[in-house]
Design brief:
Strand content: 5-15%
Mean pLDDT: 97
Number of domains: 2
Strand order of the largest sheet: 1-2-7-4
Radius of gyration: 23 Å
Largest sheet: 4 strands, antiparallel
Distance between the termini: 74 Å
Low-confidence stretches: none
Oligomer: single chain
Structural class: alpha+beta
Amino acid sequence: MSFPASFAGDLQAEAERLGFVLCGIAPAQPAPHHAAFTRWLAQGLHGGMAYLARERDISARADPRRLMENCRSVISLAVRYPAPAQLEIQSGYPFGRIAAYACSTDYHLTLPRRMGTFGDVLRRMTGIGELAIRSYTDSAPILERNFAQLAGMGWIGKNTCLISPRFGSYLLLAELLVTIELPPAEPFPFDRCGTCRRCIEACPTACIRPDRTLDAGRCISYLTIEHKGIIPRELRPKLDSWIFGCDVCQQVCPWNRLSAQQSFDPAFAPRFPPSPDLHGELRLSVQEFRRRYADTPLSRPKRRGYLRNAAVALGNVRNPQDVPLLAEVLQSEPEPLVRAHAAWALGQVGTSAARTALSAARRHEPAPQVREEIALALQAG
């Protein structure tokens, strides 16, 4: 089956009608960056994300036809979420920071419904009512940015994000795999990062590597979301006030400054502020956490991971006024992971009251990892 030259433009118009700011078609082919991806895994730069190194997923990422038999085309789509500059952010004590994309309903819940509608549109446009379609949004082993670049949507920047010259990088990506050959776009031909190194130099943990990969184990987004255990002590001060994700490498990107006036998708309007009061967050019960953050990205690290991050952020402030709250957490919080980081935070404050709280907790603390943090905090003081 052949399609007119206008098909891709008509498809883009339909995508925009549904709220997708970008739409492009790439042929189903081996992913050009797969070799780089496997080298990255071999170097152990994926941190604790062992699922990335599963053999079947590594194989699937090599070629979308391993995800869908007889796949002929990959349609890439993107929506734009609010940039930090488009949000009301409170800075300074006692506020934390949440990455801009995470302040709304989880895109894993929002986008599949929209992609289903887009799939129905595609069946109507092709005249194939039984057209086989599989849709994904960060939910299958496919190199999303690779195929978005092949579909002409932008280039992969030095910060590893897909960057559109019009919309910047505050984008969420999705793909439809289809079993018909659609007219492909020309791959995006330029690297418009040039000699700019702002993202590399601004990264608080120096996790951005010169080959456009990340050392995930050092990335603030990884540490506050994907990492499930104790945050390495040497990296805790570098988290500053970030308690979920990080936007630094995107905020300094000149292409995001150029695209700052682009409107964002209303479906991703913030449900809660990107700069919550750390005191209130550290007091959240299990029920309150679930009620406030259900169906949002903040549910991913679970309450214990999120409160761990809040404790680290307060430790980075080093305000003596926080000692009573941190002492209360150390005494009564049921999660050892949270208690451990509250102990570190008290050690960062370092006042006599903080040391008294640490000494009192040491006498009855049952968890070895927490006792170790208490001992180190007392030594630091």
